[in-house]
Amino acid sequence: MHLKNHFSISILLAISLTILFYSTLTTALDEPEYGYNEESADGPKHWGDLKREWAACKGDMQSPIDLSNERVTLIPNLGRLTSYYKPQYATVSNRGHDVAITWKGDAGSININGNEYFLQQSHWHWPSEHTINGRRYDLELHMVHVSPQQDGTNKTAVVGILYKFGLPDPFLSELVKYIVEVPDEDEETNIGVIDPSNIFKDSNMYYRYMGSLTAPPCTEGIIWTINTKIRTVSRGQVKLLKNSVLKYYANKNARPVQILNQREIGVYDSIMADNIPHY
What we know:
Layout: H1 2-30, H2 47-50, E1 66-67, E2 72-74, E3 81-85, E4 88-94, E5 99-103, E6 108-112, E7 115-125, E8 131-132, E9 135-136, E10 139-148, E11 154-165, H3 170-180, E12 188-194, E13 202-203, E14 205-212, E15 220-227, E16 231-233, H4 235-244, H5 247-250, E17 265-269, H6 270-275
Parallel strand pairs: 1-8, 2-17, 11-15, 11-16
Antiparallel strand pairs: 3-6, 3-13, 4-5, 4-12, 5-7, 6-7, 7-10, 8-9, 10-11, 14-15, 14-17
Helix pairs in contact: 3-4
């Protein structure tokens, strides 16, 4: 009887330890490294203190910002922003805080100041991170581009597209069946060939400024281009994105606007630029 009781106790202890392990693991996975609740200890105001590698989050060139008409400067020589995208195989992934589309080969590029920036991935924020004259929109898409440098580093340029509620967005409509079955966090699903030009082709009017990544590590030196054309997205499409990520981020995954400091916000308007006399 003594051995039997000892064996039973050992089995119960092993089961308890197993349950505790998986419970702890699940809790750890559900607790993100940073959050968007401005009142919480891991909120945007504290990102720069959470990790040494995130110190840039306390920098002077942070994103997003408010694109105020009072602060912008017309810069005709910025030129039209034209993309040179091409269809390429892509994957969809749930990164916990957002849903991302990643192209696995050469999906084309944009040209900024004579440098080519190659498209890497796109992801969404709700509500929008950038505001225009104080107005925050319902969704923002970021198209992340990278330009390899000779010293082995990369320069990053992000194109931002703002959306308000209205008719469904055609690109999201194309992805619905994949987002519904988006994999668990940090896993990817192949979604076949995706043409980035279905998202963005070119822009005759946009804002341009120097900023940062809008999430840790908040790396600065990012070239931001925000298209002034506001697109539409359905409430159902935004809800679909929200339901695909960790519950911690379902309500909001947008960083508050940051202080502009002494930065210049350039704006390009093709109509005004074409009407400026050249001597």
